[in-house]
Amino acid sequence: MLILLPPSEGKSVPTRGAPLDLSGLSLPELTGARQQVLDALVSLCRDDPAKAAEVLGLSAGQADLVLRNADLPDAPTARADRIYTGVLYDALDVASMSSSAKRRATSRLAVASSLFGMVRLGDRIPSYRLSGDASLPHLGPVAAVWREALGPVMTAALGRGLLVDLRSGMYASFWRPGPELAPRVATVRVLHEHNGTRKVVSHFNKATKGRIVRALLEDGADPRTPKALAETLGRLGWAVEMGAPGKGGTQLDVVVSEL
Prior knowledge:
By secondary structure, the protein is an alpha/beta fold. The protein is built from ten helices and twelve strands. The strands form three sheets. Strands 1, 3, 4, 8, 9, 10, 11 and 12 form an eight-stranded mixed β-sheet that branches. Strands 2-5 form a two-stranded antiparallel ribbon. The protein is globular and about 55 Å long. This is UPF0246 protein YaaA. Pfam families: H2O2_YaaD. One of its GO terms (biological process) is response to hydroperoxide.
């Protein structure tokens, strides 16, 4: 099973640690594309901070994020599971997992990244700011870079297992599994039900996804089909409704009434 997570916009900033080593990251086939995006981002932030703030969608009060990007090659790094923060990662709470769940997290989780394409939780990365919809001078949209680079790499990483896609729409556009993988692709949507009405609420969505992933990792189940995943989540106490299979996989709706 391979579970894909979205990144967080906010990130912790390590104060010490070895500098970035692209060759040491998982999925080394992405090194060339990673270097391209890194070089374009660093050059923009070093050469034209005002333009960089515009491209990155930053306010005048966020100039420190431009400076941080300019220093990425030499910045301290930490494990990705310590860099990414926010509601989903707070609910996932890797640090408090059992030893066996942590091992599963290392092998089964991957985080979509506009700078690195995809990272594993044990990859050492710096804190950075780059949205998935950004377009960098002399490179173009970062999403286009990853659409070209990720396909064969992620197909190989998936192997014969089930893909559980929890990415947001922006990051899902980096790589969409082909129809040949559809029988082994499950996308998960969280719906908040209140007074008979269902809707997607960002906070519920993120927190519930983090808790779902944590429960799966602690349980240790390894479902191989969307149906088996739905059954596993039901056994773990979630209310799950399964949609009809499509060319992009099968959507599972997890319905919650409270956080």
